[in-house]
Amino acid sequence: MDLIVVRHSISVANHQDLISGADSDVPLSAEGVAYAQKVRAAYDWDRFDAVYASPLQRAQKTAQILTADRPDIQLDARIEEMHFGEWEGLSADPIRTVHPDAFDYMGMFNENYAKYAPGAESYASVIARTAAFLADVEQAHPSDAVLVVCHGMTIRALMAAVLHAPVFSFGTVHNVTLNQVHLDENDGFRPRLESYDQALV
């Protein structure tokens, strides 16, 4: 199976540098729509046997643009963004001041963040649900090319699940970049990472 995972295009929350997880169903910005259309022209998005997307509108809209409104896009809640609890919709900057140990050296949430954000989802939970999603996709599409459109934290968790590596081994995933893994169905779906956060335009 050739698995291509793409983060959604630029959302209105990205513009405002706000924490937007599964409970912030924000749309793409006008710039995000235009950027997805630009990326659409830079790659063969018609080659996929199956397309999956997060049910959040920023991911759905990106998938629709990239695939020219393909009618059989499958939505799966297991690939929606992490739930950030009461930190949803907030700016991260003040939180970095109050809880510096909730961030790593790159300014990204580390495993401590869930201790401070009431109702937040742990990295372990995101990895578990993306791993379950991956297992079903492998069974349904063992030798197919599969496109998944989802979210930054979700992609890091999915890569951790695919490659059996710590989630903190994976850096920031930018909007509409290519993340590609080949999983060999004749070798127990042994993974081979072919690209990570590869810009197309």
Task: Describe, in plain words, how this protein is organized in 3D.
This protein is of the alpha/beta class. It contains seven helices and six strands, in the order βααβαβαααβαββ. It has one domain (2-91, 122-198): 3-Layer(aba) Sandwich (Rossmann fold), CATH 3.40.50.1240. It has helices spanning 12-16, 30-40, 57-66, 92-98, 113-116, 123-140, 152-163, and strands at residues 2-7, 50-53, 74-75, 145-150, 178-184, 190-198. It has a six-stranded mixed sheet. The longest helix is centred in the middle third of the chain and has 18 residues, at 123-140.
Set out the fold topology.
Blueprint (H helix, E strand, L loop, with lengths): L1 E6 L4 H5 L13 H11 L9 E4 L3 H10 L7 E2 L16 H7 L14 H4 L6 H18 L4 E6 L1 H12 L14 E7 L5 E9 L3
Helix pairs in contact: 2-3, 6-7
Summarize the structure.
This protein has 201 residues and is α/β, with parallel strands linked by helices. It contains seven helices and six strands; from the N terminus they run βααβαβαααβαββ. A six-stranded mixed beta sheet has the order 3-2-4-1-5-6.
